Amino acid sequence: MITLSPDFAQEMQKYGEDTALACFNCGTCAAICPLLHEHFPRKMIRYIQIGARDRIMEHADELWKCLHCGLCTQTCPREANPGEIILSLKRMVVDHWRES
Fold this sequence. Notes:
Blueprint: H1 8-11, H2 28-32, H3 42-50, H4 53-58, H5 60-63, H6 71-75, H7 82-99
Domain 4Fe-4S ferredoxin-type: 55-80
GO cellular component, one term: plasma membrane
Keywords: 4Fe-4S, Iron, Iron-sulfur, Metal-binding, Oxidoreductase
């Protein structure tokens, strides 16, 4: 069972970028991402929006596949800065592993 945290997007602010809620999941970032793996980074941003921290942790290894090339950020029509959101998720995962 997945536990959802409605305040997760606000909690992410301490790790950096807080623009995940600006994303309307248009898919532009996923379309240009060289990874093209299951709609990355769109999927990760959606997990933030719905508060699915458990899903992010289940797929945390995908975060380190990000080349941080900036293509997703350059093409985002809402200026949600997907690349920086992914970097923030990496910080959250590292923090979680440190605490464990």
